[in-house]
Amino acid sequence: MKHFEQSQLLNKLPKQFFASLVKKVGEVVAQGHDVINLGQGNPDQPTPDHIVKSLQDAAGNPSHHKYSPFQGHSFFKEAISTFYKREYDVDINPDTEVAILFGGKAGLVEIPQCLLNEGDTVLVPDPGYPDYWSGVALAKAKMEYMPLKEVYHFLPNYEAINPEILADAKLMFLNYPNNPTGAVANSDFFRKTVELANQHDICVVHDFAYGAIGFDGKKPLSFLQTPGAKDVGIEIYTLSKTFNMAGWRVGFAVGNESVIKAINLLQDHMYVSIFGAIQEAAATALLDPQSCVDDLVELYEERRNILVQGLHEIGWEVTSPMGSFFAWLKVPDGFTSEQFADKLLYEAHVVVAPGIGFGSYGEGYVRVGLLTSTDRLKEAVRRIRELKIF
Q1: Do 81 and 93 form a contact (C-beta atoms < 8 A)?
Q2: Deepest in the core among 127, 164, 168, 293, taking most CB within 10 A?
């Protein structure tokens, strides 16, 4: 059989750091060990019944068996507009300020290809979601990293960015509540972001994947709530986390008309929109009462509290996350993040994600997902205690 070489473009894509972690975990599981996997970001709860029922009913509608409109059904876009007005008091024009996405990841990877030319500069958070890097590579652009340091509450310090880099930058990725740190942004930070973007003609892409998940009674802010935000950027929202619909692959971008137009144009050449029944169920999720979301946030907060309290009790001084379903924990002295993750995997059979996989400023931390039962979290803490590290 002939072997066809991959393109140079594919060969230049970032290496998938976590593929090696998955392989390690698989080997330990194959040896028969009971592994507690806190290293992944895959929601563990089912999609709420009323959303599933909406899909089931809509799937029987013959009109959905045909191609959907290229840029999505108007009823779904109108639901998105209603959702943003109700949740954030943000006005969204469903006709010109919404792009339907095949999950949030698709939009995040597409956006550099929509707005950048070869060699253009993108500002990305470090640590950050690795798929930002993939989109930049596909656009043949270059990345400049914005360190997220604990001293600045894991917000980028714009004053520390080289002025020449700011002058060259055309795109900026932000993500709050943050993956992997669990940090949240405040209105003052978003106001400074709009000012910076205006000053340097930077398009801001705010990844709002964990927008529903804020703790201690504090609702995370939408970037678009900031005056002038739509002038300088967009927000990307996914139903994966808010409604446990990760496998459904449906999300949307909202905001600046010119950016939305570019996303729609690219997608016109790639897709014929999402199955109409999924769009109908997604609209149900956005428009129906949000008690299922409230229950989910309460569940994650309970898990957070149990994990953090348990780790404090064994002497691991960690900071409690303010949002998302991740905790960002400092590793003990004497370990790199990967060495510590390996020790937990091989000796305690507990999986965590090494911080270095999210960027160089992730070194010294591990990411823990709140995506298993409270009993399993307690068991993970018990196993870590037995290592006698702390």
Answers
A1: yes
A2: 127
- List residues bridging with 206 in a β-sheet: 174, 235
Side chain identity at residue 317, one-letter code: E
**Helix (H/G/I), strand (E/B), else coil: 234:** strand
Nearest residue to 137 via CA among 19, 308, 10, 25: 10
- Amino acid letter for position 146: M
Tally of residues, the chain? 390
Q: Which of 205, 265, 194, 263 is nearest to 231 (CA)?
A: 194
pLDDT computed for residue 343 by the predictor = 94
In the chain, the percentage of residues whose pLDDT exceeds 90 is 91
Which two tokens mark 47? 């999609």
Which SS3 state, helix, strand or coil, does residue 200 take? helix
- Split at pLDDT 50, 70, 90, the class of 369 is very high
**Given CA atoms 135, 137, 143, 145 in this order, what sign does their dihedral have?**
positive
Residue 334 makes CB contacts below 8 A (sequence gap 6+) with none
Query: What per-residue confidence (pLDDT) applies to 89?
Result: 97
65: Cα within 13 Å, side-chain hemisphere: 5
Residue 98, phi then psi, degrees to nearest 5: -135, 130
Phi, psi torsion values for 351, nearest 5 degrees? -100, 130
Would you call 94 helix, strand, or coil by DSSP? coil
Higher-pLDDT residue of 104, 15 = 104
Model confidence over 131-189: pLDDT tens digits?
999 999 999 999 999 999 999 999 999 999 999 999 999 999 999 999 999 999 999 99
* Lookup result for tokens 């804020």: 214
CA nearest neighbour of 347 among 38, 35, 88: 35
Longest dimension (CA), the chain: 62
State the pLDDT at residue 19.
78
CB atoms within 10 A of CB 49: 9
Give the contacts of 105 (CB within 8 A, at least 6 positions apart): 131, 238
Task: Tell me the pLDDT of the chain averaged across its residues.
Answer: 95
d(CA 36, CA 373) in angstroms, rounded, equals 10
